[in-house]
Known about the structure:
The chain is α+β, with helices and mostly antiparallel strands. The protein has helices spanning 26-38, 65-74, 90-93; strands at residues 7-11, 17-21, 53-56, 62-64. It has one domain (7-93). The mean pLDDT is 88.
Amino acid sequence: MRYGIKGVAARYNSGTIIQLPEPFNHHHIFWAVAQLSEKKQLQFEQPVMPEDQGFYTEDKEFISREEALAIAISNGYQPTEYNNSGHIFSEDLW
Length: 94
């Protein structure tokens, strides 16, 4: 767990939240869902909106990119000059 963030998460309109641990990135979730949807094993709506892309903490709670940034900073993360957007990406963490 890095900076208090355990992994990436995507929230779908159905209410389903898919989580993958560090070192995965959001695109890994989207790729897996697309592959499973193509095989008719899962049916999730695409695409996931930016506000539904986030992270999860040790207690498996979904948090937004903005919330993740605040948690990471409180755990020692130093935002870089190129990322001053107010939210964080998995590439910033691992």
